[in-house]
Amino acid sequence: MRYLTGLLIGVFNFLALQAQRNCGTVDYVKAHPFVATQNAFERGGRDTIVNEIITIPVVIHVLYNNPVQNISDAQILSQIDVLNKDYRALNEDIAGTPQVFKNLIADSRISFCLAKVAPGGYSTNGIVRKYTTVSSFLPNDDMKFSDRGGADAWDSKKYLNIWVCSMQGRILGYATVPGGPANADGVVINYDVFGNRGTVRNPFNKGRTTTHEVGHWLGLKHLWGDTDCGDDGIADTPQQYGYNYGCPNFPRKSLCSLDANGDLFMNFMDFSNDACMFMFTHGQKIKMRTVFSKTGFRNAMLQSFTCDSANASAGPLPQETPRTTAIEPIQETIRLKLNPVSDFIEFIYKEKSQLAGKQVQIFTTTGVRLYHTTLLTGTEKISVQYLPSGIYLLVVGNGAHRNIFKLVKI
Description:
Blueprint: H1 2-18, H2 25-31, E1 54-64, H3 73-87, E2 110-114, E3 122-123, E4 127-131, E5 160-165, E6 173-175, E7 187-190, H4 208-217, H5 282-290, E8 314-316, E9 334-336, E10 344-349, E11 359-364, E12 369-374, E13 379-383, E14 390-398, E15 401-409
Parallel strand pairs: 1-2, 1-4, 1-5, 3-8, 5-7
Antiparallel strand pairs: 6-7, 9-10, 10-13, 11-12, 11-14, 14-15
């Protein structure tokens, strides 16, 4: 009985560890030291105006090795919406802030838009998609360079570059801090914690990983200063011993809590679950806006007008040619009426005789099989009316001759 109890505790602790937030920014900064005075950012433009709304143009670089990683436009747009609500204190769950901390809630008056003008004056929707042979990236900036399987940054003085890709290990994302090298500046987010719909996983399914990492990009530190009872340099964030995870109950007091109110675990710069972080403080607002001041490292962003499509001087930005999928051998090309789908999936084979015996399976993104059949005719439909709306994996073929498609059910 004692052995079984210990085993259960060990399993519980392992599962809890797997569900904890893991931010890679601190380790990244330690591994990539730089001298801020040697950065390539231009400063010395106009100063910020008191309480003006600072708009940050964003470009999303989607790097995918398989269809599931090639997240939808809708998922990307949901993340921009989350950023705009979180940074303007317009998120509905902010009401969950304990009463004793409500006076700390701040509207940072920072907003985000998908860029409408790309480098070279091309018009764009702010989303760049690129197939990569890298199945999963390390947090070492490879995803930021084309010659390493990634995508090159757009001008960091005019855009916030966000790379969305598959990352190895438990790291959900990481960011560069103000003053770093311009050609690697930006934020990296794992594809399945980006946005609040589509291919996202609990408990990081509300887009708060990006809110957190963009906070680092704007100069914020973790609340505990990344050392026991450390200092994040912000006067109105209470001192705490270390990070919180999960959804703590208020009050959450630690060894160095200053009073009975304890930790500000609902702050975006802690490690709480997405559903349990709601707010920035006034001190954090001042810190973030300082990077746009006349002497700040992101001052040049105030001169970026790439959110206005009227400034485009050329046609649409060339996009990567969509990758076609074929089932081996090559003459067995399959055409699918897919994405989004509401009622049926239609299969049409070039050679009808080669269809017999092909298996079709539908899985959830976590690997649970929901459907299995064998195709028999040259042109065939299967019903997906019973599936709830969401993202699924469609597997067509047998053995080594299988192809995986992303299935979007509406």
